[in-house]
Design brief:
single chain; mainly alpha; 53% helix; 5% strand
Amino acid sequence: MLKNKKTKLKSWNEVDDALKLLSELYIQKQELEGEQTVKINEIKQSIKNKSEVIQYQIKLLKDNIERFTEENKTEFLQKRTKKLTYGTLSYRVVKKVCCKCAEDAIKALKLLKMDFCIRTKNELDKEQILNCDETILAKAGITIKSDDKLKIEPYIEEINDN
């Protein structure tokens, strides 16, 4: 990004002034983001208030439909689906896995040699990789890239206090 471009800054004083301006711009950005957050939260609260009534009505209607359907479940013995003008009601057999403690269940499955029932997540541990021999890592197709990056830290708090 910065390669092949000449700086417009001519002295460390100008760099220091640029850092001050950078701090002021960060402060302006933070203020705008804070204002944005406040407005977003106000909108969210307004929508939440309006939607709570709708959510309650939805729940009541669904509960009533479920109760009525349960009371008339015998109508679903032969045909598991009932098509109405404005929607469809269906009963489906659904299986759900339940266990009190996943850790205990995993241990038990391992003891029963049922590892195929256990999902494991594999991912690189980058912190450990940084401690490994790079020639060995290269065999695994892993390289470690080093960069000399400039870290710019304007004194936002000090500027903000003034």
